[in-house]
């Protein structure tokens, strides 16, 4: 196996990084704006957003996706900030969904705008959504997601389900003192519904209050898992899990849905990482938990076409770091990124 261009066993194009990992999943951030301010992700006052001319246009996003498909990427996810705030979001979905060879197109969203958008997004070719919901307690939700309400997010979940953006996957970031005891009610949702409810360990990104809060209020998924089992019974691991799925999936007794644990700190999954990230301002961000980036927007705007984008992408894949230092950063001190917060990368 070599770094860079190569072939899979069935003869398809594929990119491998310097550690032999097959990289085929691209997360595309559409914006750094958000209509929420989750305490661990985004400061209340953001000193500067990406100026409009620095955002990749929808044509440029399409070009990057076409180039990525050309070198073997098959899975794509739109994220942000809040991707549904991008006025051209439906048109971007339509453009990407029409790229021959693009296998899967999903979105991670806080759901607030899905009542207006879910139908159009599904019609444009979006397959699924992951919706961010930290608690089912209406009074606690604004303490953690700040500008959101349970009623509005719930309406978004229902709209997504009605539009066929399924299976619905809910993401809850477990934060000590905010929602660590709410995990049981969230997991209980899977008894009646065929949803996936996934619990995410906090990661310290950004060298300020978000990074500090994420360190101070970290809750291991070992604790979350124990809390759920104590209240709801044993969690049985699901067979045939996809090795590059960051979520370890389980089922409660007689449940219709799935309980998942995403544990980048207590159980890092760097060895099976298959992803690359594109920021809204046109950088390939090599690893979520590190500041290294390569500028693809400059390559496009200096006249480079598909071949130039593919060259930057191949280089970015080849340079992907082997892993991160989250354990030390949570237990001792430090943030994984100095330059960017989570809302500026996309999770
Ligand atoms: N706004 C959308 C949302 O909230 O789903 C998409 C962007 S958001 C940055 C993507 C995901 O990052 C969220 O679903 C949330 O679960 C996760 N997230 C944000 N900050 C985090 C942190 N400090 N640690 C772990 N996960 C975080
Ligand atoms: Fe916005 Fe998503 Fe970050 Fe919350 S996690 S502030 S919804 S980008």
Helix content: 25-40%
Beta-strand share of residues: 15-25%
User: What number is the mean pLDDT?
Assistant: 92
Output the helix-strand order: EEEEHEHEHEHHEHEHHEEEEEEHHH
Ions and ligands: S-adenosylmethionine, iron/sulfur cluster
Structural class: alpha/beta
Distance between the termini: 29 Å
Globally, the shape reads globular
Q: Give the C-alpha Rg.
A: 19 Å
* CATH-defined architecture: Alpha-Beta Barrel
Largest beta sheet: strand ordering: 10-11-12-9-8-7-6-5-4-13-14-15
- Characterize the main sheet: 12 strands, mixed
- Count of individual beta strands: 15
Q: Give the C-level CATH assignment.
A: Alpha Beta
Number of helices: 11
CATH H-level homologous superfamily name: Aldolase class I
Q: Uncertain segments of ≥5 residues (pLDDT<50)?
A: none
Integer tally of domains: 1
Per CATH, what is the topology?
TIM Barrel
Question: In a few lines, what is going on in this structure?
Answer:
The protein is of the alpha/beta class and 347 residues long. The protein has a single domain (22-344), classed as TIM Barrel.
Please, could you describe this protein's structure?
The chain is α/β, with parallel strands linked by helices. The protein has one domain: Alpha-Beta Barrel (TIM Barrel), CATH 3.20.20. The protein has helices spanning 58-70, 89-97, 114-124, 141-144, 150-162, 183-192, 209-216, 221-232, 296-301, 306-318, 326-331; strands at 4-7, 13-16, 22-23, 25-29, 75-79, 104-109, 128-132, 169-173, 196-200, 236-237, 247-251, 258-262, 275-278, 283-285, 293-295. Strand 2 (13-16) and strand 3 (22-23) form a beta hairpin. The structure holds S-adenosylmethionine and iron/sulfur cluster. S-adenosylmethionine (SAM) binds next to strand 6 and strand 8.
């Amino acid at each position: 196996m070599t770094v860079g261009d190569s072939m899979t066993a069935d003869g398809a194009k594929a990119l491998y990084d310097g550690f032999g990992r097959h990289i085929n999943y691209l997360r595309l951030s559409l914006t750094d704006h958000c209509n929420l301010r989750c305490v661990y992700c985004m400061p209340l006052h953001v000193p500067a957003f990406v100026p409009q001319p620095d955002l990749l246009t929808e044509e440029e996003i399409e070009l990057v996706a076409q180039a990525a498909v050309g070198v073997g990427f098959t899975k794509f996810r739109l994220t942000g900030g809040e991707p549904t705030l991008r006025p051209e979001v439906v048109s971007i979905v339509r453009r990407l969904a029409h790229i021959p060879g693009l296998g899967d197109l999903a979105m991670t969203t806080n759901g607030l705008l899905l009542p207006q958008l879910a139908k159009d997004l599904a019609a444009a070719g979006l397959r699924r959504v992951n919706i961010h919901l930290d608690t089912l307690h209406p009074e606690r939700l604004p303490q953690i997601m700040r500008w959101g309400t349970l009623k509005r997010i719930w309406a978004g979940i229902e709209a997504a389900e009605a539009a066929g953006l399924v299976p619905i996957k809910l993401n809850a970031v477990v934060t000590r003192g905010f929602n660590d005891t709410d995990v049981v009610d969230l997991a209980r949702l899977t008894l009646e519904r065929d949803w996936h409810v996934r619990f995410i360990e906090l990661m310290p990104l950004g060298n300020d209050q978000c990074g500090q809060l994420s360190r101070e209020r970290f809750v291991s998924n070992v604790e979350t898992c124990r809390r759920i089992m104590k209240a709801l019974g044993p969690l049985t691991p699901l067979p045939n899990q996809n090795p590059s799925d960051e979520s370890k999936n389980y089922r409660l007794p007689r449940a219709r849905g799935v309980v998942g644990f995403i544990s980048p700190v207590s159980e890092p999954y760097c060895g099976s990482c298959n992803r690359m990230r594109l920021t809204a301002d046109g950088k390939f961000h090599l690893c979520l938990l590190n500041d290294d980036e390569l500028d693809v927007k400059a390559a496009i705007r200096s006249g480079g076409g598909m071949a130039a984008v593919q060259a930057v992408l191949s280089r970015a894949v080849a340079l992907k770091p082997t892993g991160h230092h989250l354990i030390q950063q949570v237990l001792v001190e430090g943030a994984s990124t100095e330059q960017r917060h989570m809302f500026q990368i996309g999770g």
